[in-house]
Write a structure and sequence with these properties.
Isochorismatase-like_hydrls; EC 3.-.-.-; alpha/beta; 6-stranded parallel sheet; Isochorismatase-like_sf; single chain; Rossmann fold
């Protein structure tokens, strides 16, 4: 884990911390993930940096070998968790695919805000977080992962993303590492 810096215009992107997703069985307790993500959101807001809250409202169509939901999710499934303390200044992205950039306004919003770096947190590490990170990297954003503020439904998938994929897409660290850099660079 080697977190070196936060760009002057860094955004926090919180993936799928919503009622239906956190109710699923996960490798790590979601309460801790939500708390760390909320702490980061509060810190980013305090420093006047963009906070993007992402939820998934439907499953993408298409065949897959593993069972998955396609179409719209039940009422309440996509509701963001109140612990995130959503603010009017937060940008909401509702997606229908794994990644937060696909068929949404996320790229345009970040560029309009002058963002050059994103910090990613949320559920699921190997699905929503990784898909969003891959697109962010391909679009030229610096990517940072607060790895203790994410989890997955599958521990092996979570571990693979953190150990093998994320170091190729950006820098990894803890929530505290990100908070310390925010305080150091914004003091």
């Amino acid at each position: 884990m080697a977190l070196t810096t936060l760009d002057a215009k860094t955004a926090l992107v919180v993936i799928d911390l919503q009622r239906g997703i956190v109710a699923l069985p996960t490798a790590h307790p979601t309460g801790e993930i939500v708390k760390r993500s909320a702490d980061l959101a509060d810190a980013f807001r305090r420093h006047g940096l963009p906070v993007v809250l992402v939820n998934v409202t439907a499953g993408a169509p298409g065949r897959a070998e593993q069972s998955r939901h396609t179409g719209d999710f039940p009422v309440g499934f996509a509701d963001l968790l109140p612990e995130l303390n959503q603010q009017p200044s937060d940008h909401l992205v509702s997606k229908r695919t794994w990644g937060a950039f696909t068929n949404t306004d996320l790229d345009a919003y970040l560029r309009q805000q002058g963002v050059t770096q994103v910090v990613l947190v949320g559920v699921a590490t190997s699905i929503g977080v990784e898909s969003t990170a891959r697109f962010a990297h391909e679009l030229g954003f610096n990517v940072t992962f607060a790895v203790d503020a994410m989890t997955d439904m599958n521990l092996d998938a979570h571990t693979n993303s953190i150990a093998r994929i994320f170091p190729r897409l950006g820098e990894t660290g803890t929530t505290q590492d990100v908070l310390d850099l925010l305080e150091k660079t914004r003091a």
